[in-house]
C-alpha cells in the first residue's frame, strides 16, 4: 500500500482504507498478482465468474485526490485492480475512457463545490493494457481540515453488473443513447462492443418479419471511442448490404433468433468471405473473436431489432457462462430499445406535425418568419405551441398563435386540430371572435370523456390569439383567448404590446365565459407584428411585464431592411431565458399592404342607378390600369351583378372596392345585409339566382365574409 495521509483517522480516505482489511483473506499478500495481466475485464481469469468467489475476496479500493483532481494517495492493491495505473501525482481522469472524462470531471468538481457525495455510479476504468474494469464508484468529500476528494471503487460482480447495466440502459428514451448505454455495458465482456440496429428501428418505424435479403443494419453505437481502421463501419454508418444479410442469416438459424460465437480470425475470414467485409466488420488486428447476440422483441413470431457484437482478442475466448450473461443482458434490455423506437416514432410524428403547421409564406402583402424551439429534443418535450400565417381568399392575411396545454402526442394532436379548424373557419369568412367561439367549443368537446381524447389528456386552458390584416385599410382586427398580447412596432420605431381586453383561455368554465371581442388597430405599411408564446418571455427571475418589454425592445431593433428569418432567430437568442422551461415560439410579420395606386374604394347609395354608377367608376379605373378588354368586360359585368344583388336584397350604403393583386383583380361589394348568398339551381324561367351563376362563371373564386355592419361579397378575376 502507498503512503497514507497523516491526518486524523476520521478522514474519508482512512475510513475507506481501514475497511479494506476486512476483505483481504488471512495470509494473502497485499500486492499485484502476477497473473492479473491475464484477467478478464472483471479482474478474473477467462471463464471465471466473480459472483462465485468467496466473500473474503477484496473488491474495494480507494483513491485520494487534491483540488486539482490529481492522485495524492491510493489503495488499489487487490488483484482485481491490477493494471490500473494510478500513480501519485497523475490526473485521476487518466483512468477513464476518453468519452467519460467530461461527465466524471463535472461530477468530481460538483462534489468539491457542494460537499455533497455522489454515490454508486457505474463506471469503467482503463487498464494499462487497454482492457477495462467495471466498478461502482462513489465520490466523497474529504473530511475537514483536509481538502480534496476520496473516490471509492468496488469491482462489480457479474450479476451486480447485469442489474446495474439494465438500470442504466432504461434511463433514456432516445434510441441512440439507449444503444450507447447497452454497448458500454457489454464492453465489460470484451475489447470492442457495437450495436447494429435494423434501419426501421433506428428511424422509429414498425418492424415486420421482412425477407432476410432486404434487411438493412445501421451502426447505432460503438465503444470505446478510438481511431478505427480505414474501411471499418463506424457510428451512424450502414453496414454493407451483404454483411447485413450474413448477420441476419447467422442469427436466425432454423428460423429462430440465436446467438453465435466466431472464435478466431481464421473463422471470421472464412465466414465473411471477403477482405472488404473483414475491413468493414473487424475492428482491428487484436480483435479476433466475436459474439453476436440478437436483440429480440418477444412475440409470435419474435422480431429481431438488431445485433449486439462483442469483440475479443484471440487469447481470451468466450466461456459458456459469459455468453449466458451476454444473452441475459441483451434479453433484459431489448424492450428498452423497442420503447426508444416507439418514442422515436412519436417524436418524428410530433415534430412533423409541428413543422407542417409553421408558416410557409405570408403572401405579397405580408412577409413572415417563424422560430420554433422545443424544450427538449425528445417528443416528451415537444408541446402544443403553434403559429400560422396564411392569405385568406379575399386578400387579407390571417396571423394565428396558440398554446395548447401539455406536451407530447396528445398536445400535438389537439394543436393540429385547432390550427386546421381556425384556418378553415377564417377562410370561410368568419370574424376572429367567431372563430374563437368555435375553438372554445372544440376544446370543451375534446375534454368530454365520452367524445374527447382518451388517456386523461385535457386541453382546457389552452390559449389562442388571432389577428387578421387588411392590406387595403392597413388595419389589424384582433381577438384573444387568454394569450399574451402581440407586440406591434410602428414605422417610426414606437413599440409595445397591443392593449386587448383579458379573456379566459379556451374551454373555461361556463360562469367565467365572456363574449370574445374584436379589437382594431392601425398598422401602417412597414409595421412589424410579433406573435409569441409564453416560453419566450417567462422567466421566474423577472416579472412577466419585464419579459414582454425586453421582447418589444428586441423587435423594435429589427431594421426594415433586415431579412426576417435571421432577425427572428436573433430576437429569440437575445430574449429567451437562460434556462428554457417551455417551448419557444415566435412569428414576425412585416405588414406591407397594397400600394395606394393598386386599390380604389367607392361608397354608393342603395338606389336603382347604383349599378350603372359603379360600372362607370370601375370602367374608368380599368382603363387607367390598362386592363385587357376581355378582362374589363368581365369585371364590369361582375360589378353590375354584385351591386344589383346588394340593392335588391340588402339596402343601406353600398361599398365597392377594387384591388389589383398580382395576376388577378379582386372585386368587393359590401352592404348592410346579413343574408348569405347561395348558389342554387335556377330553372329556365326563374329570374332569381341568375346573378350568382354569372358571378360563378366569370371568376376563379368568390366568397362572403361578415363585418360588424353587414357582409362583403368578394370575387377574383384573372387578368
Task: Give the SSE map.
Blueprint: H1 12-20, E1 60-65, E2 71-75, H2 101-114, E3 118-126, E4 132-141, E5 149-155, H3 158-169, H4 175-186, E6 192-198, H5 199-202, E7 217-223, H6 241-251, E8 260-262, H7 265-272, H8 275-281, E9 287-297, E10 303-313, H9 320-357, E11 366-373, E12 383-391, E13 397-407, H10 409-427, H11 432-446, E14 463-470, E15 475-481, E16 487-489, E17 495-497, E18 519-522, E19 527-532, H12 544-556, H13 564-575, E20 584-591, E21 599-604, H14 610-624, H15 629-649, E22 654-661, E23 664-671, H16 690-698, E24 701-706, E25 711-718
Antiparallel strand pairs: 1-2, 1-5, 3-4, 4-5, 6-7, 6-10, 8-9, 9-10, 11-20, 12-13, 13-14, 14-15, 15-18, 16-17, 16-19, 19-20, 21-22, 22-23, 23-25, 24-25
Amino acid at each position: 500500500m502507498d503512503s497514507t495521509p497523516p491526518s486524523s483517522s476520521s478522514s474519508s480516505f482512512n475510513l475507506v482504507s481501514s475497511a479494506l482489511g476486512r476483505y483481504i483473506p488471512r495470509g494473502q499478500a497485499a500486492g499485484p498478482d502476477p497473473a492479473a495481466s491475464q484477467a478478464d475485464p472483471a479482474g478474473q481469469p477467462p471463464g471465471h465468474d466473480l459472483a462465485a468467489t468467496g466473500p473474503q475476496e477484496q473488491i474495494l479500493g480507494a483513491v485520494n485526490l487534491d483540488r486539482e483532481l490529481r492522485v495524492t494517495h491510493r489503495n488499489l492493491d487487490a488483484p482485481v485492480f491490477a493494471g490500473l495505473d494510478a500513480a501519485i501525482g497523475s490526473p485521476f481522469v487518466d483512468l477513464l475512457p476518453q468519452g467519460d472524462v467530461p461527465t466524471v470531471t463535472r461530477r468530481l468538481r460538483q462534489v468539491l463545490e457542494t460537499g455533497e457525495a455522489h454515490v454508486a455510479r457505474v463506471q469503467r476504468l482503463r487498464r494499462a493494457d487497454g482492457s477495462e474494469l467495471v466498478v461502482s464508484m462513489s465520490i466523497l468529500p474529504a473530511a475537514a481540515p483536509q481538502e480534496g476528494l476520496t473516490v471509492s471503487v468496488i469491482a462489480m460482480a457479474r450479476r451486480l453488473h447485469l442489474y446495474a447495466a439494465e438500470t442504466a440502459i432504461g434511463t433514456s428514451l432516445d434510441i441512440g443513447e439507449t444503444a450507447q448505454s447497452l454497448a458500454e455495458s457489454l464492453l465489460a465482456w470484451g475489447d470492442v462492443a457495437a450495436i447494429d440496429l435494423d434501419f426501421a428501428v433506428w428511424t422509429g418505424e414498425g418492424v415486420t418479419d421482412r425477407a432476410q435479403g432486404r434487411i438493412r443494419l445501421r451502426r447505432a453505437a460503438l465503444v470505446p471511442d478510438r481511431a478505427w481502421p480505414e474501411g471499418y463501419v463506424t457510428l451512424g454508418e450502414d453496414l454493407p448490404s451483404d454483411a447485413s444479410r450474413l448477420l441476419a442469416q447467422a442469427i436466425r438459424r432454423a428460423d429462430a433468433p440465436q446467438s453465435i460465437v466466431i472464435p478466431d480470425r481464421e473463422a471470421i475470414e472464412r465466414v465473411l468471405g471477403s477482405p472488404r467485409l473483414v475491413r468493414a466488420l473487424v475492428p482491428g488486428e487484436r480483435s479476433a473473436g466475436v459474439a453476436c447476440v440478437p436483440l429480440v422483441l418477444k412475440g409470435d413470431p419474435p422480431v429481431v431489432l438488431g445485433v449486439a457484437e462483442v469483440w475479443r482478442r484471440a487469447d481470451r475466448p468466450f466461456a459458456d457462462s459469459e455468453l449466458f450473461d451476454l444473452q441475459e443482458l441483451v434479453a433484459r434490455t431489448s424492450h428498452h430499445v423497442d420503447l426508444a423506437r416507439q418514442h422515436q416514432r412519436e417524436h418524428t410524428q410530433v415534430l412533423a406535425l409541428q413543422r407542417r403547421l409553421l408558416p410557409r409564406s405570408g403572401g405579397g402583402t405580408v412577409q413572415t418568419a417563424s422560430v420554433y424551439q422545443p424544450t427538449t429534443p425528445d417528443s416528451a418535450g415537444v408541446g402544443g405551441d403553434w403559429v400560422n400565417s396564411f392569405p385568406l381568399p379575399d386578400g387579407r392575411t390571417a396571423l394565428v398563435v396558440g398554446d395548447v396545454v401539455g406536451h407530447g402526442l396528445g398536445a400535438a394532436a389537439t394543436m393540429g386540430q385547432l390550427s386546421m379548424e381556425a384556418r378553415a373557419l377564417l377562410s370561410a369568412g368568419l370574424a376572429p371572435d367567431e372563430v374563437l367561439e368555435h375553438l372554445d367549443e372544440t376544446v370543451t368537446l375534446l375534454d368530454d370523456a365520452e367524445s374527447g381524447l382518451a388517456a386523461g389528456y385535457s386541453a382546457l386552458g389552452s390559449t389562442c390569439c388571432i389577428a387578421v390584416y387588411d392590406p387595403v385599410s392597413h388595419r389589424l382586427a384582433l381577438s384573444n383567448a387568454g394569450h399574451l398580447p402581440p407586440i406591434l412596432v410602428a414605422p417610426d420605431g414606437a413599440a409595445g404590446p397591443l392593449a386587448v381586453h383579458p379573456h379566459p383561455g379556451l374551454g373555461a368554465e361556463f360562469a367565467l365565459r365572456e363574449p370574445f371581442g374584436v379589437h382594431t388597430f392601425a398598422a401602417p405599411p412597414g409595421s412589424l407584428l410579433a406573435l409569441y408564446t409564453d416560453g419566450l418571455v417567462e422567466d421566474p427571475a423577472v416579472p412577466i411585464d419585464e419579459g414582454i418589454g425586453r421582447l418589444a425592445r428586441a423587435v423594435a431593433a429589427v431594421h426594415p431592411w433586415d431579412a426576417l428569418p435571421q432577425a427572428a432567430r436573433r430576437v429569440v437568442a437575445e430574449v429567451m431565458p437562460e434556462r428554457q422551461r417551455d417551448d419557444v415560439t415566435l412569428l414576425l410579420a412585416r405588414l406591407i399592404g397594397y400600394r395606394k395606386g393598386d386599390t380604389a374604394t367607392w361608397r354608393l347609395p342603395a338606389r336603382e342607378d347604383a349599378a350603372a354608377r359603379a360600372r362607370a367608376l370601375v370602367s374608368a379605373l380599368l382603363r387607367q390600369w390598362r386592363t385587357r378588354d376581355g378582362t374589363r368586360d368581365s369585371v364590369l359585368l361582375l360589378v353590375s351583378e354584385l351591386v344589383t344583388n346588394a340593392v335588391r336584397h340588402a339596402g343601406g350604403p353600398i361599398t365597392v372596392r377594387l384591388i389589383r393583386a398580382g395576376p388577378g383583380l379582386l372585386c368587393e361589394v359590401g352592404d348592410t345585409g346579413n343574408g348569405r348568398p347561395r348558389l342554387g339551381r335556377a330553372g329556365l324561367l326563374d329570374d332569381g339566382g341568375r346573378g350568382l351563376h354569372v358571378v360563378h362563371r366569370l371568376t376563379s373564386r368568390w366568397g362572403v365574409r361578415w363585418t360588424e355592419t353587414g357582409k362583403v361579397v368578394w370575387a377574383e378575376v384573372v387578368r
